[in-house]
Amino acid sequence: MRLSIDLWPGYYPAVIADQKGWFKEEGLDLVLNMPGNTDKMLARFSAGTIDAIAVAFGDAILVSSQMSDLSVILVTDESAGGDAVLAMDSQVMNNLKGKRIGTNLGGFGELLIRKLLQHHNMSAQDVNLVNVDASKVPHLLSSGKLDLGHTWNPYVGLAKEQGAQVVFSSADTPGLIPDIIAISGEFRRTHPEAVKIFLKVWFKAQQWWLDHFIEGNLLIAESTGQRPENISLDGIRLMSREDNLASFHDSTTEHGLPQVLKSYNDFYIRSGVIRVPAPNDVLVSEFLE
């Protein structure tokens, strides 16, 4: 199983399990990759050179518009402040007209920015939206090339070290940004046992990390090149197996995946994406059960 993940704490149970050798113990040969560039990772997944990705749900929905054979098998976490919009000077929020705001356009980051603009009774036409990768935001803010930028940890921490301040976050938009594991439909059909093993080991590693947080952070730091003290679950709610089952089957509240999918579908339709998925096309809970 070839898995690529963003640098995001919600995905680190895979890093811990890989470091511990738990996947191999269960008979799963997992190849873990952290490219540090979401767009490249999504492109590789669409091209079929990797089997699975750990990304924000909104990004997975966007990919499914180009790659119909995709299955979301797990909600890793919900961003509850971990995604942030930052500025070098918070006074910029007093007048957003014409400001340069950076995010990954067409994905969940743009939807977060649009929610920010709604809070200020403004639209995307009132500002200059700039397409940037999350990893570039700290430098673009500190160099004055952006007035505001959306990113996530560890890049939020880097931006703060350079003097940036959080002016809006996913804590202001409950339920908007769940993070997920998606696999190709081909892999799901040809390797169902591998998927079951992956989820079994995932939840084992997730609980172990919560029980051994400092030790877990050392393992994560060793694998990702971060400093252990910069690894945090602040603003992130890890999702257990029980949380997952509730989210997959909750079609009535804003925290349920079907309703979140509807929000993103509405956004993508307005943005001109022709094909948007139905819940039954992408949400696969059978391996959780």
UniProtKB/TrEMBL annotation:
Gene Ontology CC, one term: periplasmic space
PANTHER family on file: ALIPHATIC SULFONATES-BINDING PROTEIN-RELATED, TAURINE-BINDING PERIPLASMIC PROTEIN
Species for this entry: Litoribrevibacter albus
Ranges where the SsuA/THI5-like domain occurs: 10-212
Xref: Gene3D superfamilies: Periplasmic binding protein-like II
Pfam families registered for this protein in UniProt: NMT1
Family that this chain belongs to: Belongs to the bacterial solute-binding protein SsuA/TauA family.
Keywords: Signal
Signal peptide: none
Protein name per UniProt: SsuA/THI5-like domain-containing protein
Compartments reported by the entry: Periplasm
